[in-house]
Write a structure and sequence with these properties.
The protein is an all-alpha fold and about 170 residues long. Helices cover about 40% and strands about 0% of the residues. Helix 1 (about 5-10) packs across helix 6, helix 2 packs across helix 3 (about 65-75) and helix 4 crosses helix 5. It is globular. The two termini are about 25 Å apart.
Amino acid sequence: QWYTPYVAQAVENGLMKGYGDGYFGPEDHVTRAQLLQALANFDGVDLSRYSWEVDVYEDVPVDAWYSPAVAWGLEQNLVDRTQYLYPDQVLQRQEMCVILARYLSRFQFQPVRTAAPFLDEDQMTPAAQSAVYYCTQLGFIDGIGDGNFDPAGSLTRGQTAKILLGVWALFR
């Protein structure tokens, strides 16, 4: 499959992990919690020092496998402090760009290419529009073809592995 080398490299470099039963799920959709965990892995953060405040997000249990990554993501301003995070909800393409742009803002990477306007940019949230263009200008995510980005579309774990490796390349 097209994603095999990306998944292998993402796992080898500790950016992503499987489900623990030897299954990676490359065609499964990626969730918000999974992206935060992957970015914590990417950052090499020691999540054992992060604990969870029960009252921050009503839908993030203290003992959830992802709660330390969520606490880290909140501290890093990767996600907003709201009543609900919806950690198991499938991540939208535009949401991934918002989180990645917030993550990368610490490093002040400059765009490496220009991005033509997407025909469906009117379907992007105002907060996502600049993040989508920033991510496409950095070169690790593209539209879906025909001039569209599909901002509310989902990403698979295989696609996410490829995107994270593109982000990783920025640091090389």
